Design the sequence.
């Protein structure tokens, strides 16, 4: 960070922005903010790379607000509040987080801020857009729905931001992004921010940006130094017990905890296991409605939930002021996802713990890919779990049953050992065989329908 930029006043931002920043407790710009804000203010296209939690949102939002202030007005007419800046996000959670932050930054200005995303009724968002908003935060699919219904347009949008751009392209949003960018004015400012930039992403970015400046405040794909990383070797059948041991014993003092899995089914099953173990847990994944996801996140942030089990839908977009522990119950298939997952902890200079459970050869291969991406070498640690916890399942079940079974009173008659009486067994006589009884032929003949000629004679 340039030595002379140690305060937000040094950027020359409007007083309304500086006051909002001061209310939020911001004192010194982070390295990404100090590097990116002057370039965005100058109207340059940039690619910003920095670890998650280092202040990327303010790095692009503050200068964007500053550039839009000349068009701010108090008119009630929606026509006076067209979309002038667009922030595209890959997930609903990230869109909601960005909207919350940007609304706070612009709270003392006349600019309107709106957010639209899928998974909820489009009518309420349509009504919001009809009122007008200069800054729009959106996921690609929902934005295209609103454009096709002619509820909003991007004809006046001169600034576009692709937040977590690599994730958007990895998730298959390239066709939607191309359609959206084609609707923007050609004379525009384009910004891309992400924690990771692979060579493929940089190649694709060349189609969106014009002579961009690369802003990197740390080694690419690196992890914040405030995060302590540990890899524990375990078995597939003992992973749940290992996690329970981590949460209840080894790191019981680190709460709340965010646990990542690779599949929605695993999230549901693991949550039930944690609840059975006495841990207040909930899950967030793609099958839950937006209302359920919002309620779950709010409960987790408020400390009502001890453990949140999540798929990668929550890896980007979760902004929790104090999250001391992240656990990778499943090693991510994509090494970039590892960086984003553990980036939920160790934010804003705080220390954090990132633990990963490694079971089997496939997990070890994925760990090797993470080492290659981050340039780090991890050592496998053996996680020691109590002997009772490691006992075979049948033995544990018998022990738990014995502990729960009520004590039985001793009965002197039924509990005494068997003793022979000494009496000879009684000998019974053999049954006497009786000759078979010969039934009269007339009965059989009658049943067959009549008497024979011999019988009649």
Sequence:
């Amino acid at each position: 960070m340039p030595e002379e930029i140690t305060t937000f006043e040094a950027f020359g931002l409007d007083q309304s922005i500086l006051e909002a920043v001061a209310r939020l407790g911001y004192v010194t710009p982070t390295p990404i903010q100090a590097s990116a804000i002057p370039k965005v203010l100058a109207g340059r296209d940039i690619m910003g790379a920095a670890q998650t939690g280092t202040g990327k949102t303010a790095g692009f939002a503050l200068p964007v607000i500053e550039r839009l202030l000349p068009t701010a007005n108090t008119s009630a007419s929606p026509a006076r509040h067209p979309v002038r800046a667009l922030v595209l996000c890959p997930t609903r959670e990230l869109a909601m987080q960005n909207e919350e932050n940007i609304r706070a930054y612009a709270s003392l200005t006349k600019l309107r801020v709106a957010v639209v995303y899928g998974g909820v009724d489009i009518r309420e968002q349509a009504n919001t857009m009809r009122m007008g908003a200069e800054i729009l935060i959106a996921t690609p699919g929902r934005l295209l729905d609103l454009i096709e219904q002619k509820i909003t347009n991007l004809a006046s949008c001169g600034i576009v931001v692709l937040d977590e751009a690599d994730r958007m392209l990895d998730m298959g949003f390239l066709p939607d992004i191309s359609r959206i960018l084609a609707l923007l004015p050609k004379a525009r400012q384009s910004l891309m921010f992400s924690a990771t930039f692979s060579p493929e992403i940089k190649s694709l970015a060349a189609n969106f940006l014009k002579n961009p400046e690369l802003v990197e405040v740390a080694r690419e794909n690196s992890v914040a130094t405030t995060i302590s990383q540990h890899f524990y070797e375990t078995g597939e059948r003992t992973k749940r017990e290992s996690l329970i041991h981590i949460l209840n014993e080894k790191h019981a003092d680190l709460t709340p905890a965010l646990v990542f899995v690779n599949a929605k089914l695993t999230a549901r099953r693991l949550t039930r296991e944690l609840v059975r173990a006495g841990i207040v847990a909930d899950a967030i994944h793609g099958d839950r409605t937006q209302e359920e996801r919002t309620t779950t996140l709010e409960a987790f942030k408020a400390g009502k939930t001890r453990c949140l089990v999540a798929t990668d839908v929550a890896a980007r977009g979760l902004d929790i002021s104090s999250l001391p522990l992240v656990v990778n119950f499943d090693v991510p298939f994509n090494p970039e996802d590892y960086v984003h997952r553990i980036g939920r902890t160790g934010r804003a200079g705080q220390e954090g713990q990132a633990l990963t459970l490694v079971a089997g050869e496939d997990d070890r291969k994925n760990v090797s890919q993470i080492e290659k991406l981050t340039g780090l070498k991890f050592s496998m640690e053996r996680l020691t779990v109590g002997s009772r916890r490691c006992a075979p399942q049948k033995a544990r079940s018998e022990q738990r049953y014995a502990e729960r079974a009520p004590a039985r009173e001793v009965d002197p008659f039924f509990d005494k050992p068997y003793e022979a009486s000494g009496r000879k067994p009684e000998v019974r006589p053999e049954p006497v065989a009786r000759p078979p009884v010969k039934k009269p032929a007339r009965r059989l003949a009658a049943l067959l329908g009549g008497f024979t000629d011999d019988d009649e004679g």
Observations:
- The chain is about 40% helix and 15% strand.
- Residues 428 and 434 are 18 Å apart (CA to CA).
- The domain at 227-386 is CATH 3.40.50.300 (Rossmann fold).
